[in-house]
Amino acid sequence: MKLTVNGDKHEHRGDGSIETLLEELGAKKEHTALMVNGTVIPSEDWNATALKENDEIEMLVFVGGG
Description:
Layout: E1 2-5, E2 8-11, H1 18-25, E3 32-36, E4 39-40, E5 56-61
Parallel strand pairs: 1-5
Antiparallel strand pairs: 1-2, 3-4, 3-5
């Protein structure tokens, strides 16, 4: 499935779920916020959200530090 993730083309080889996309990208779910086609998807809704061909994903991964 072809997606755009943070402006870059990405070939998703998983089942179309947000969780498998995050695993594929190596993102830690507990530190990630994302939008699909401009809509913020709360982490509690990730299991109920199916990605579709040509979706545009904006992903923010928060990193602690000082």
